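TL;DR need structure tokens for one chain.
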Amino acid sequence: MPVLMTEAFIKECCKKDKLYRTPSVNDKLYLHYKGFRAIENLDNYTNLLCLYLEGNGIAKIEGLVNQPKMRALYLHENLIEKIEGLSLMPELNSLNLSKNSIEKVENLGDLKMLQTLLLGHNCLESLESLHGLLECPSIQV
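>> reply
TL;DR here they are.
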């Protein structure tokens, strides 16, 4: 059964992980393997540098509009089909989207600081599906 990412649930996770009770003071959140289907209720976590959301059932990258300082985002082992919803995180340096259902690399042009992009075990089957990597010259092979 899916678990809702409510403010109360997030605060309970913070308490369990010995993080701060005041959302804006936290620079990291451990929300992995919880059974979430959507990213929501993170508006008050404005100083996040690192967010762990792997191993849920998230189908869409959304709800990350108030995290301009985010540097590392872990979204592997989810159900994501499209790279989107990241443009308001200009400091993003590391993004793990491996083990999802992504068919095309796209929407990376605003991520000028991105250096690490993990996309293994997706549905990227052609050279054309990787063309979006050209939008992000900060990535080096």
